[in-house]
Amino acid sequence: MKQWFRSGTPWIWLTGGAVTISIVMVVGLLSLIAVRGLSHFWPGSVAEVTIFDPRTGETSSVMGEIVRSETITAQMAREGGNPVGEDQDLVTRYLFKQGNRDQFGTDFVWHFDSTMQDVRYPQGVMVIERREWGNFYGFPVALMTDGLVTVTADDPAFAAQLEVALARAIERANAQRVIERRDVGRINTAIERIRLTERGLELQQLPDEELASQRAELRAQREALDAEYDVLRMQMDELQRERRRDSLVMAMTDGREVQLNLSTVIAITQPNDMSLLSKFGHYFAKIWEFLTTEPREANTEGGIFPAIFGTITMVFIMSIMVTPFGILAAIYLREYAKQGPLTRMIRISVYNLAGVPSIVFGVFGLGFFVYYLGGNIDRIFYEAALPSPTFGTPGLFWASLTLALLTLPVVIVSTEEGLARIPSTVRQGSLALGATKSETLWRVVVPLATPGMMTGLILAIARAAGEVAPLMLVGVVKLAPNLPIDGEFPFVHLERKIMHLGFHIFDVGFQSPNVEASRPLVYATALVLVILIVILNLTAISIRNRLREKYRSDSD
Description:
- Helix content is about 60%, strand content about 15%.
- It has about 550 residues and is of the alpha+beta class.
- The strands form 3 sheets. Strands 6, 7, 8, 9, 10 and 11 form a 6-stranded antiparallel sheet that branches. The chain has a 5-stranded antiparallel sheet with strand order 4-3-2-1-5. The chain has a two-stranded antiparallel ribbon with strand order 12-13.
- Strand 12 and strand 13 (about 300) form a beta hairpin.
């Protein structure tokens, strides 16, 4: 036994077992997130269930998707005022997504198995995804245009006409959105610039004649913009009227008929009538929609594209800022600074800085970057816009700069380690051949240490992409559908606020008004964040490996 321990075999097995357990835990966690998140997009069958109320002896019908079930104690059910038999110890209840929140007040409801009778999956049930109030479940009755019935549900042409009417409403909604976002946004930007220019003229205290002349020119520009806006407003009003022409009459399980305007509808499906192939097509379409659209309904519906874009943009800007400063600081500490008590103190301070809680960096970023630097920038360059802040408010640039400061110690330490691994004989050989110290550093040492620098950048990206606490203070908000990049000069608007996947997970998971609706989106967003971090890291690792092979072959 002693010989076996001395051979090191137990430690090999212990290390292998630890690695295996770690891999199993990671794979298990990712699998849980993937299953819980991706299953949300599958078009589940819609059930119609007869509910018997033993207290009144009456029955009612409930329609919706059975989301999940759980077993609880009968005592817990009785405390909630639910009818449970005295002889029962455990009961099973089912969570129904009944939708129709504008009619019932809530779109999720629990029902116990003891009260559920006659579970059916009827044909012809429609699931209508709306821009607000969540899904609507019911049976189609008729299609109306301008308040008149054009076709009934039992007409063979109903499905084709409904598809045409919905496509027309969606097309007009998209056209109206383009006008509002692009054209009206451009006009508003131009009007704001004119206002700031007028304000700047007042601050310059120009002669009256020159001031009057420039004001007249600005007034003419404003009138031209107002005329252009009037034309756009007429177009939007016409599109709005056209959107609201078509309506769909739906019947609920309680017999009531509800008229739904197609201007509020995003998609209509009939999952009980869909084939397996159709369900797969709808499944992947919903995933793509989740990745490429904006959130709705307090972030409990819709997509996460602004959060994805904001995360990538912020990490990219952070990488551009932290890499040169971190590398130059490490080169100075390792190659130029005199190794004495002061240098050791600086190095220890850098190590300790890596362990400072991230929220401290957020507070520092808010006080120094936003209020001090941003406030001074506004006073010097944007005086005409005051008291409304331009850079003196949280935004993309300050969030990226805060993350750069947060990850700077990681880059410095990794770069120093990379420089320390370069043998002194390489430096001595370069100097012996007549190269200067600067040439030796930048043409020999730094290229060989590039893989270590990339390692620091990889670690910085991994940490920055998952940070949430500091970003809540310096530029990340709950909802910012307008991207910080558009067609208006200067094209990249660093002063704008952004969305972030990490904060989106926090908001949906802990601040959502509809917990059951947001639960699967938390898993789906978390999966996207993990995949995004993996992609960013794999990209950096690929670049590091190529650089390593390049300089290794050059040295050979």
